Amino acid sequence: MHNDSCATSLAESIVVSMTPRETSRTTLTSAASMRVMAHPTRLRLLGLLRERGPQTAALLGDLVDEAPGTISYHLGRLASIDLIEPATAQSTDQRERWWQATTMLTSWEPAELLDDPDDLAASSALQKSIAHAYANRYTDYIDAAPALPREWVAAAASGDRSLRLTVDELATLRGELEALVERWVAASASRDRDDDGAESVALVYQAYRRP
């Protein structure tokens, strides 16, 4: 179990084909790396590479509303902090440059960054960028819900509770949530992508003390 206060796959789906490479994670420890990752377009590109596997800037351009040159720049920035790397070409066109994610999860520990103003600012900016990405994705789901099969809309979940917990109880809750998520990640990873009835599902959970 990894006790990371902030950990994210940033993929559009938890339904991934897990390999030894894909089960690893990248831990961010510097303000510079967090600032690189905090850009919304880079978050989007990293998530797509984690979900879809190797891609070119042109292929990613079909999914992200940016020019291929801009996408190539952002890919270069992600590569500069080892979140992505060159991939084996998936076509015979030698002019194409393919990229893949180096790991399936990125994490960092905000509590360890509270004493350094620069680290704290970078961590906060990254957390806010991810929060916006989560909100935008859920907004997209709400807009798309009328066109989805009724049973999928009925099966979806969203809610919140107000609890009174000690710090130890909150830490225990975090551990239990992580264990539950890991169980479903393992179940997802063992499923053939062609299984009937399985679709991409986004999972986000939060538990924190109110200021």
Tally of distinct domains: 1
Major beta sheet summary: 3 strands, mixed
CATH architecture term: Orthogonal Bundle
Question: CATH superfamily name?
Answer: Winged helix-like DNA-binding domain superfamily/Winged helix DNA-binding domain
CATH topology: Arc Repressor Mutant, subunit A
Q: Give the strand order, joined by hyphens, for the main sheet.
A: 1-6-2
Portion of residues within helices: 40-55%
Q: What is the CATH class name?
A: Mainly Alpha
Give an overview in words.
The chain is mainly alpha-helical. It has one domain: Orthogonal Bundle (Arc Repressor Mutant, subunit A), CATH 1.10.10. Helices cover 45% and strands 9% of the residues. It has a three-stranded mixed beta sheet, with no helix packed on it. Strands 3-5-4 form a three-stranded antiparallel beta sheet. Helix 1 runs parallel beside helix 5 and helix 2 packs across helix 4. The radius of gyration is 18 Å and the shape is globular. It starts with 5 loop residues before the first strand and ends in a 22-residue tail after the last helix. About 6% of the residues have low confidence.
